[in-house]
Structures are given as structure tokens and as C-alpha cells.
């Protein structure tokens, strides 16, 4: 069964107040594009075309104004409301009807991934139809994250913000799970902070020896946008890549065209829409090369 995508773009963004008091964090600019373009691009690089976007009730209209039904990218978007942010595992119960038994790739709307080998890493995870896969990234301060210990590709231990980390590898906000995820998520009990933790869901897979890991090595970047400083750093990182290489990162327009999901005329229409920007000029240059 074809894997479907989920972008969790809810939450209140209180750590970025006051800039997120009137607009969703995932709609903030990351250099020249809205933040949600980047996680959307990751799912598209996985070959996923059916994607559910989970938002707060008050923000959904703004997301829809930006992305519509997804047809401009050759996608089919489904919109789901999250009335209250009750934990990451809740996304699977909210998306149960949308998934209809299909395996899924869920990405957090504020997680940014870069790396030349990213499509290959995603393809490797997609091959696994039974069980789940997490993506690990080496960090200098693992005690701030959910940490994974593993042997080869098999996860041995996952622990949330440990005082003594079992490894230096953090669990990123990208999860490939099988069609059992919604049923398992319904069994998750709220944590002491009252949330349905993704770690609890992953531990269920781990107990059944069904949890693998894909490691993001030196050639990858995983960026957090949880603070004002890290948001600025991520934007500057994208700007440096863009201006140094003359290539775009996180462009759904380019990916959909290169995948053959939209034709030259559709890309030309998008280039015309953005003609006053460097992004529009870039899309136009793709057709001229």
C-alpha cells in the first residue's frame, strides 16, 4: 500500500511569542519561503503525493490560502483540525480516517532537513512496510532531546531528555510507521505533563522489536526552529546555500516538476506568479536549462 504523509503544523508557538501570536509558526518565513515548504518538500522527496496537514482551527484558513488543494504541486492535500495540542502521538488518531490503513511518514512542521543523500535515506525507510523507522542525528547536547541507542539499524533504547544520554544521537521529527500506528496511538496514555508522547508510541514498536533507525551522518543538516535565534540561524543557513550554489532548498515547485508530477506549463505559471522574486527567476531558469 502506498505510504501517505502527515505534516503536524499545530501548536501555539509560545516559545516564539510575540511573533507567533497572530500567525502560525509554520507560516513564518525561512529566508525566502514559508517554513512549511521545507517539511512538505521532504515528504515529496519520499515520493508521497497524498498528504494530510494538521493545523489549529484558527490557522487552517491561512495554510489553505498558501497551499490550496496541493494540485499546483501535483499533490492531494487533506486538511485536519487539531482542537488542542495533546501530544505528537495524537496526530495518528486524528489522521486515522485519512490513512485508511496505509503506512505513513509524519514530519513535524518546524523540522528542517538538508542533505544530498536525503532521497536515498527516505527510500531506504520506505521499503520497510512492517514496523517503524526513526531518523537519528548526532548532536552536541543530547540531553535536550529524545535520544536513541542502536546497534546497526535496530533500535535498542529510546529515552526522552535523559540526564545521562545512552548515545549522542537525537531522534528527529520524522517518523515512518506502518498502518498499525493509529491503533497503537489510541493505547498511549497521557504522560505526567498531560500529553500523548511520541516516545510512548515508539516504545510500543520497540517492545515488539519492530523499530529501526536510519542515521543522518556528516553530510546532513537537521535544523531546529524553536527559538528566535535558531529561527534566524536556519534562515541564514538557507540563504547561504541558495546564494552560494544558486540552487533552491525546500522548493515544492522544483520537486514536483522534476518528479514529473507537473509539466513545463504548470511550472511556467508558478514562475510567472513569483516573477518579481529571485525564487520566481529560479523557477524560470529551470525551464531554460
From TrEMBL:
Belongs to the glucose-1-phosphate thymidylyltransferase family. It catalyses: dTTP + alpha-D-glucose 1-phosphate + H(+) = dTDP-alpha-D-glucose + diphosphate. This is Glucose-1-phosphate thymidylyltransferase. GO terms for molecular function: glucose-1-phosphate thymidylyltransferase activity; metal ion binding. Pfam families: NTP_transferase. Catalyzes the formation of dTDP-glucose, from dTTP and glucose 1-phosphate, as well as its pyrophosphorolysis. Signal peptide: none annotated. It is an enzyme of class 2 (transferase). Its cofactor is Mg(2+). Residues 4-238 form the Nucleotidyl transferase domain. NCBIfam families: rmlA (TIGR01207). Its EC number is 2.7.7.24. InterPro entries: G1P_thy_trans_s, NTP_transferase_dom, Nucleotide-diphossugar_trans. Keywords: Magnesium, Metal-binding, Nucleotidyltransferase, Transferase.
